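pipeline: protein-struct stage 2 | run 1193 | Hydrophobic protein
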Amino acid sequence: MALLLFLVLVAVVLGLIGAVVEGLLYLLALGAVVFACALAYAALRFRRGGRRYR
């Protein structure tokens, strides 16, 4: 869960920097890619979350 929150935080920071600073639009795109990876990671993790080994 901490990794997911960290990835979302990194995506937001990269997106903000990419949107505000002129000439760094690629950071906005990179933030979108990191956010998409975080969503994919969350989907895989929560889908497999029901199987717990004791």
